[in-house]
Design brief:
Mean pLDDT: 91
Number of helices: 7
Number of strands: 4
Helix content: 25-40%
Distance between the termini: 46 Å
Shape: globular
Structural class: alpha+beta
Length: about 190
């Protein structure tokens, strides 16, 4: 792995094929509708979409930090805290991107300097984070990764007996998003 060439900043970059999500084939479809409509059509819902948010930040030095910016906003809108979340699924574009988000989320300095917050966001507990594999291990099928993240949260909530899950992802050009998913009562 040490012999792999950097993908971006040559010759000293650290992002290589070994620590990047690989592009895979994939397709996805998700039915989103009201609970009332789903039940009337004979469908059993898997989960509720409680809230979502899209964010944007300076792509020059904060390109892949969308999860850091989106997480506290969606939690506040949903009336929840990090400790209320039972399942976390973050898109892993690169290993370094995940590490940068976890470090930024755990930094009072970053929160105060870049986010205008008084204190850090806090980091998701790793025993609840991407437990079934993320984009680094499963791949990143453009157009399907978001659905994979959401359905993984819904299935994990059911299997693990949790109530709330959080999905977060970075996107091209300094974009990002997060959403809160709530388990559907069995």
């Amino acid at each position: 792995m040490a012999k792999l060439k950097p993908a971006f900043i040559k010759p000293h970059g650290t992002v290589t094929a070994a620590n990047s999500s690989f592009l895979t084939d994939g397709a996805s479809a998700v039915l989103i509708m009201s609970e009332e409509k789903a039940l009337a059509m004979g469908f059993k819902p898997k989960a509720y979409l409680r809230d979502f948010v899209y964010v944007s930040q300076d792509p020059k030095d904060q390109l892949l930090l969308g999860p850091t910016y989106a997480t506290p906003t969606v939690l506040q809108r949903a009336g929840l805290s990090l400790s209320d979340i039972d399942v976390f699924e973050f898109h892993e574009a690169f290993a370094g991107q995940i590490m940068a988000n976890l470090k930024a989320m755990d930094s009072d300095w970053f929160a105060q300097t870049y986010m205008g917050r008084k204190s850090k966001v806090g980091t998701p507990p790793l025993d609840k984070f991407n437990l079934w594999g993320g984009s680094l291990s499963l791949g990143h099928p453009f157009g399907a990764t978001g659905c994979r993240l959401v359905t993984t949260v819904a299935h994990r909530l059911k299997k693990e007996g949790g109530q709330y899950g959080l999905v977060a992802a970075c996107a091209a050009g300094g974009q990002g998003h997060a959403m809160v998913i709530e388990a559907y009562p069995q």
